[in-house]
Amino acid sequence: KKFHRRSDPEKNPSREKMPGERLTLRSTSEIGRFPGAAPPTRVQVTIHNENEKQEEGGCRRWFRKICPCCCKRKNSTSYDVTDKVELTKVPAPTPEPTKPKPENGERKETEGVELSVCSVDLLSSGLGQNRVEHHTDQFHGDELIIRRGQTFQIEIELSRPFSAETDKMHLELKTGFLPKVSKGTHVIIPLVEHLEDERWEAKITEQNGTKIKLSVNSPANAVIGLYGLSVITGSLKDEAPTTHSSSKNIVMLFNPWCEEDTVFMDDDDQRKEYVLNDTGRIYYGTEKQIGARTWNFGQFHEGILEACLFVLEKSDMPPSGRGDPVNVVRVISAMINAQDDYGVLVGNWSGNYSDGVSPAAWSSSVEILRKYHSSEGIPVSYGQCWVFSGVTTTVLRCLGIPARSVTNFQSAHDTDVSLTTDVYFDENLQPIDHLNSDSVWNFHVWNDCWMARPDLPPGHGGWQAVDSTPQETSQGIFCCGPASVSAIRSGQVYLKHDTPFVFAEVNSDKIYWQRNLDGTFSQIYSEKKAVGHCISTKAVGSDERDDITQLYKHPEDSEEERIAVETASRYGSKPDVYSAPAAEDVQVEVKIDGEGPRMGSDAKLSIVMKNLSSKARRATLHSQVAVMHYTGVLKNAIKKDQIPVELLPNEEKTIEWVLPYQQYQNQLMDQAALMLTLCGRVSETKQVLANQTSFRLRTPDLKILPLGDAVVGKEMSAKITFTNPLPRMLKDVVFRVEGLGLQKGHEVVVGDVGGHSTVTLTEHFIPSQPGPRKLVASLDCKQLTQVHGVADITVLEQ
Q: What is the pLDDT of residues 460-470, one digit of tens each?
């Protein structure tokens, strides 16, 4: 469609028509100057001259003059059509009398032959110089995949030797529907004697008879995407030029290795992690119970590059805008969700996934992107934040933009641009549900991507937050970012894009309001450390968790952090919210022991109350525990209590709180998350006590044990073990297993699993790629989610 030339499949039956004709992977074969004809892998053509004495016709003499490489005067000629048309040796004819060699100045037998292109070799082998030097050798296939701002090589075979004194030649690259020179989508590349940086140009580096080798340079701000290549040749005598179009396309990507590219990253270990690593870790749970799952990004997997270019194409983003990573990232954040543009993934937080795949069942971006591409853009069901983030990481790394998945625990969702998280109570300190539209998610996963920001004041380049989960619209579209992380940290929420929303997610204060008798609301409490905890991403070069909270916010309670919060609030819808706080001498805190309560057992927490005054204090705590989506939306309360508390001067008291298994067993949502809300008032001082603590019930891991030697091409196996932690039966259990370079993703239907029963599954597979690999498995069923496991397998060469 947009990026290639069409051909008639009826006239070319050997060519398989790709879906939508978007990315065409063709053989380099050409016959003469007719690149539209794509021959089979191997064709042998023999031309017999039945009457040797027959005089050559005028048409044939003309055609031989125009294209001598395709039409030579021989009695019998055999062609082997593979990568290009080449003349096969035939028995030597009867030697003719030796003619004297021409003296200097004499015209050679190519006299009068028009200069034309016989074939173009893009030197696009996955193991060749171009792909290795451009760090694209891990991509599947033999397309020429290059990075901007860096030279690449091509070879051209001509009808006769090229002479700079009498001939002229240039290259042309085109991308998009209506390529224009002024838009950078129609590129004219001249031949020069010396290459210079930051411009399109080509130089002849080798010449051997009719073959020449060109070194081609591109600027670091070139448009990325799919290009068609043409070679234009002619004579300096103003004769009509001839055009040869290559049958193979060129893919141009961003270049983190190029200092002039705005996505340049100067640390090689970070480039290996954030561009080249095709697996990673995504964190979830709560700040006190952080879980981790392995995710296969698979950006080099077969078909993923085509799928990522298809996503760009489907966005209807003008090709001329694809040179700016800010634009590309913003479009990708909109296209990963299907909310308003039929993007990749449909979000679903209802708990009902019967007509699709449960978000918790995915462990790879590969199946999602390939399914979206093969269906010509039908959104895939279903995703939630970690799935949106995993797919975003894949697309950005594939296109050459350094990216990582980031998890924020206690992540606020500010719905009214107040830059605060507001909780409303009535006169009796009962929550007013219809007003409590702001929420705090147990965790939320988005992305960081790396780039300079020349559109912002100096100092705001580096990591940029981008969020593909559809939460709030930005300029009428469900997208978010890129927002400078340094601007978020300092509270400069007036800098684009969507910085206020991300700031509120990580550093808003939680403000408690009580309704007065006249219907107005008064601020009764301010919680300054309620959101933005343990912001996590996978560490560089290991599977450890890296806490990057300090990148997003100053230390809690520091003067810099308070200044950032108050600076940001001045640009929100409630700029006067920071009045003098009420006196506080009683504190309430909820603690979780160890890794926290496990699924199938009673949930036990500790409520710790401290009296910081020299006088006794009395209070009544109202406790309520509710089942909660990980997004912070409460489903329903399952237990309410009133707890009278008496504190002696300077006393600290611990109250044990228990939720029996029988009360939550039939109530849980996907993430097994619960919210404990505490609220009360100190009798002596009228101080309001408030605390909200989210926690989850831990699920067991799948245990994966590799069996046998891991060698490329040799069958091995792995044993996957799961024990049902519940005293009840699990219905319709399905395992999903995948390993990049080990085996393709697939489902294994297990069926019902009895209470406390153990299931063992043995997988047999043949590794296809050497090096460190990960076998990932997950379990999917309605009663139990977020069950997964991973095994590290080092595969040896055969």
A: 889 999 999 97
